[in-house]
UniProtKB/TrEMBL annotation:
It is an enzyme of class 2 (transferase). Residues 249-311 form the Tudor domain. InterPro entries: Tudor (IPR002999), UDP_glucos_trans (IPR002213), UDP_glycos_trans_CS (IPR035595). It comes from the Eukaryota. This is Glycosyltransferase.
Length: 466
């Protein structure tokens, strides 16, 4: 042995990248796209996960991809998670999302296993990409001299807004309903609801400690990989890289444009046939989905159902939570051929790419926003939690690729939904958003092609770290 692979001038070293996603589908999917991108560039890839998250990863990557998957044993019971939640290895399966911070803190129990792995893993690891929530992986990587890139499934816009609100000011000044504007971007005027889910809702000891750890590990990481592309938000990317000292942002997306390997999809999915029929009938469809995590109250689901019914548009609605099934019971019979409810995991990218889909009623998780942009489908933002209200603001105000619903007394009323759905599908604003989103879709394609901005950034990243 003697020399490390990088020292041997006669043999080009094969870089080896470790990917460590956080345990939820929304956080894992973009890193699996990244795995495939790296593999195609001749990089060896190892994905770190836990036993019950393995099947989803293995199925998405497919054995022929050449990626290695290693599970770290996850404890049966987690501190702070009630007995009913024991054995939970994913945020998506928590008995309540309010246990998020306990779960996230408990991931640190994986650290000794992770370090044993780093000690023995060959070929030598070139760099680690780990989710921002796995803050403790920075310490582990540093012990072994491995650069760590942090990954948050968020735009640069959100990173800049969070930094301006929380780190460059004395905390959020949104204790009343007044709008607060950001000094460097005076047109961005935030209200209480934009930030409520992010911070105000939880200031327990655990959540405060967690945020501190995540913030500090982020700041001390080698770089930040962002699932976005330069042409989408140049202002915020340049601002981040010139105004803040660390870590540098590397935009290598949209990762979902990786088309080479498809998910194993049921070819004859009932919704695909339904969409094909709509296309044949020359009907436009509104796709309705709220991601993999968010909880929607029964009252809200009822308002959405009535709003969709009244809007008279064609809709394909993914209702994933069992608790919501009862509420939507009967709607298909009432709207006849106009609506379809799907109760299982779908290939969202495929649906958005379907030619009949002309609008997306979305919770505005960042993956969903990007997938919609790439498919050239305008968005009606219906944010539910976390940074989604800010994503929805970005969609409407910065990117101008959609609209947002207004909340009234904690609910989006059916009348509001009906009005905005019509505006998106038939109105002037929808038309403008559709034009803009198609332009961005073309730019996204260019960014990931050989020689495009994201393609070059990934190339530089690989070469700089080896
Ligand atoms: N997704 C999917 N099928 C489903 C539900 C979700 O493929 O039935 C995918 C969706 O395409 C996206 C991810 O799951 O890539 C959800 O991520 P997002 O950031 O939009 O929201 P989150 O689930 O994290 O709230
Ligand atoms: N965070 C950070 N930089 C970022 C994004 C997030 O330091 O660019 C930290 C920040 O401290 C934030 C924490 O991660 O409060 C949790 O992120 P998020 O708001 O997504 O969590 P949520 O409130 O949705 O559970």
């Amino acid at each position: 042995m003697g020399s490390s692979p990088c020292d041997d001038a006669s043999l080009p070293p094969q870089p080896h990248v470790l990917l460590f996603p956080f345990m939820s589908k929304g956080h894992t999917i973009p890193l699996l796209y990244l795995a495939r991108l790296l593999l195609r560039r001749g990089v060896a890839v190892t994905v770190i996960t836990t036993p019950s998250n393995r099947p989803f990863i293995a199925q998405s990557l497919q054995p022929s991809s050449g990626a290695a998957i290693i599970d770290l044993p996850f404890p049966e019971t987690l501190p702070g998670i009630p007995a009913g939640g024991s054995g939970v290895e994913s945020v998506d399966n928590l008995p309540s999302i309010s246990l998020f911070f306990n779960f996230a803190m408990a991931t640190q129990l994986l650290q000794p296993h992770f370090e044993r792995l780093l000690h023995s893993l060959l070929p030598r690891v070139t760099f680690l990409v780990s989710d921002g929530f796995l803050w403790w992986t920075l310490d582990s990587a540093s012990k072994f001299g491995i650069p760590r890139f942090v990954f948050f499934g968020m735009s640069n816009y959100i990173h800049v807004v969070l930094e301006e609100v929380f780190n460059n000011n004395d905390g959020p000044q949104t204790h009343n309903d007044e709008l607060v504007s950001l000094t460097p971007f005076p047109w961005i005027r935030l209200c209480k609801d934009d930030l409520e889910c992010l911070v105000l809702r939880s200031h327990t000891k655990t959540s405060t400690e967690f945020r501190k750890k995540v913030g500090s590990a982020t700041a001390n990481s080698y770089g930040m990989i962002v699932n976005s592309f330069y042409e989408l938000e140049p202002l915020f990317i340049d601002y981040w890289n010139t105004e803040y000292s660390a870590p540098r942002t590397w935009c290598i997306g949209p990762l979902c444009l990786d088309q080479k390997v498809q998910y194993s999809k049921p070819k004859q999915a009932s919704w695909t046939q339904w969409l094909d029929q709509k296309l044949e009938d020359k009907c436009c469809v509104l796709y309705v989905a709220f991601g993999s995590q968010a909880e929607v109250s029964a009252e809200q689901v009822r308002e959405i159902a009535s709003g969709l019914e009244e809007s008279k548009v064609n809709f394909l609605w993914v209702v994933r939570k069992k608790s919501e099934w009862e509420v939507v019971e009967g709607i298909e019979e009432r709207v006849k051929e106009r609506g379809m409810i799907v109760r299982e995991w779908v290939d969202q990218r495929e649906i958005l790419m379907h030619e009949s889909v002309e609008g997306f009623l979305s919770h505005c998780g960042w993956n969903s926003v990007l997938e919609s942009v790439c498919a050239g489908v305008p968005i009606l933002g219906f944010p539910l939690m976390a940074e989604q209200p800010l994503n929805a603001r970005m969609v409407e105000e910065e990117l101008k690729v959609g609209l947002r619903v207004e909340v009234e007394g904690g609910l989006v009323r059916k009348e509001e939904l009906e009005k905005k759905v019509r505006e998106l599908m038939e109105g002037e604003k929808g038309k403008e958003a559709r034009k803009k989103v198609k332009e961005l879709a073309a730019m996204a394609e260019k960014a990931v092609e050989e020689g495009g901005s994201s393609w070059c950034t990934l190339e530089t990243l690989i070469h700089e770290t080896c």
